[in-house]
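User: Just a sanity check before I run the rest of the batch. Below are the structure tokens for the first item. I only need the designed sequence back.
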């Protein structure tokens, strides 16, 4: 059946819709009846006839890498459950979607909840979990209701609960409303929160969730989008799925593009098959009229910033070295990492020449200072110091030495903390200073006092 989308929501020809196939689709709704009309839960029935280990093998073969941030291979993570385990195994769907610039999981939950439930149920069968949670951020109350309704529907049809589809496999899924903090998205903070405590992240090692997770039992934590892909891997087969995208960067992923482009929004692409230029100029309709590109944060707010005029030397699979401008970067995990940043959660933030880097960095540092859980000293104190110093820089009350001071604070955090929030909060400062030191230093001149913190004067301030 030909799929039509709501007015203004047609996918771009360079998109490949797998996970977002039903998002903003004409005639689609969240009911299980609508899902069943288009093959909903057929992959679950197929998976239940397979050996659980064979499902994990298909996911490994598919090359699927986690879409929550770190890009870790999903099937490999599943094999980390200790082989001689005798404790219960849990699966948690991370629906915290807390990384600024990221807005994909909420669309899946709001518009296609049964895709997620089917993907989760297959994944639970594969890893031997009989109890699973969807940890959804506090700020998504409607999403939580939609999921609860979908779980009830799935139970009524025998796709959840006892003896699913007559297979003998039992599974309950519960929706857990989050605690409303960025750190609840970090998997070990999330687990603490789910246990009813403050979301203080746990140190790894030893607390890798696959071995010591929820209630100190093996726990698989996967992102919403990652779990949805499992359904499609079962449908297509791992080898066929791996033909989507590029080697080591397989499948599709949803880019969430925000900032200074004509058409910001979500775009599902084959990983690595589309360049930054195609994202900005073709899919997003280009930069705003009369503007030029200044910087890009390619994978959510904690990813290191890229300057528009940077050129990178990137090693190719055949061993040769290729020069790439920012515009040439294929949107995949490995190339973006080779360019010194990360593909992260898929949140692509575009900044044009109207943006003051002092203002942007201060905006980011204000967020991170607010979100540190406070457990470890470098992060608790350092994130606040970074905010105070970048406040001064953006407000024109800093001294030129403050830029170096800010930089040294960032490097005192990075690598010295319990969880990866330490890197998440210091990478923006480290990269903004490395790439825009001149502009940040110029902002400390007394004549610029008060010019940058006011968004209306940002255009003038950006010319500093
Ligand atoms: C500070 C911080 C915040 C995070 N927030 C999220 C989040 O909101 N959603 C998410 O899926 N992963 C988030 N992650 C990554 C998770 O810890 C974890 O790696 C991920 O849920 C694993 O799923 P995946 O393998 O499917 O990507 C965050 C990590 C850190 C360090
Ligand atoms: S790095 Fe920051 S967020 Fe992570 S545990 Fe330490 S204080 Fe908490």
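Assistant: Here's the designed sequence for the first item:
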């Amino acid at each position: 059946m030909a799929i039509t989308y709501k007015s203004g929501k047609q996918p771009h020809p360079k998109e490949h819709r797998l996970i977002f196939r039903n998002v903003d689709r004409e005639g689609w709704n969240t009911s299980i009846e609508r899902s069943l009309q288009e093959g909903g839960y057929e992959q679950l029935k197929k998976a239940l006839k397979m050996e659980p280990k064979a499902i994990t093998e298909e996911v490994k073969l598919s090359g699927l890498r986690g879409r929550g941030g770190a890009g870790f291979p999903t099937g490999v993570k599943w094999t980390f459950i200790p082989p001689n385990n005798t404790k219960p195994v849990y699966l948690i769907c991370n629906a915290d979607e807390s990384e600024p610039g990221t807005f994909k999981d909420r669309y899946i939950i709001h518009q296609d909840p049964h895709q997620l439930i089917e993907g989760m149920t297959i994944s639970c069968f594969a890893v031997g979990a009989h109890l699973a949670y969807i940890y959804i951020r506090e700020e998504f109350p409607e999403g939580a209701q939609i999921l609860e309704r979908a779980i009830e529907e799935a139970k009524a049809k025998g796709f959840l609960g006892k003896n699913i589809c007559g297979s003998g496999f039992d599974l309950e899924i519960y929706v857990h409303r989050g605690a409303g903090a960025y750190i609840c998205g970090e998997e070990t903070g999330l687990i603490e929160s789910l246990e009813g405590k403050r979301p203080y992240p746990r140190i790894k090692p030893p607390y890798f969730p696959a071995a010591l997770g929820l209630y100190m039992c093996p726990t698989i934590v996967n992102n919403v989008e990652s779990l949805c892909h499992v359904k499609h891997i079962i449908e297509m087969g791992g080898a066929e799925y791996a033909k989507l995208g590029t080697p080591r960067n397989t499948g599709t992923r949803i880019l969430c593009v925000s900032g200074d482009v004509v058409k910001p929004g979500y775009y599902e692409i084959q990983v690595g098959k589309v360049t930054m230029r195609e994202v900005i100029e073709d899919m997003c309709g280009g930069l705003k009229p009369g503007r030029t590109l200044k910087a890009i944060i390619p994978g959510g707010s904690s990813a290191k910033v890229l300057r528009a005029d940077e050129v990178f030397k990137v090693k190719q699979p055949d061993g040769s070295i290729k020069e790439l401008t920012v515009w040439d970067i294929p949107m995949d995990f490995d190339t973006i990492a080779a360019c010194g940043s990360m593909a992260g959660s898929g949140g692509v933030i575009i900044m044009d020449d109207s943006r003051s880097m002092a203002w942007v960095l201060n905006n980011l540092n204000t967020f991170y200072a607010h979100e540190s859980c406070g457990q470890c000293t470098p992060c608790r104190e350092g994130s606040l110091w970074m905010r105070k110093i970048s406040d001064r820089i953006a407000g024109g009350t800093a001294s030129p030495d403050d830029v170096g001071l800010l930089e040294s604070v960032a490097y005192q955090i990075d690598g010295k903390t319990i969880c990866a929030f330490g890197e998440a909060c210091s990478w923006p400062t480290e990269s903004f200073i490395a790439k825009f030191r001149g502009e940040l230093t110029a902002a400390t001149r007394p004549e610029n006092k008060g010019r940058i913190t006011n968004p209306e004067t940002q255009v003038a301030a950006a010319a500093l």
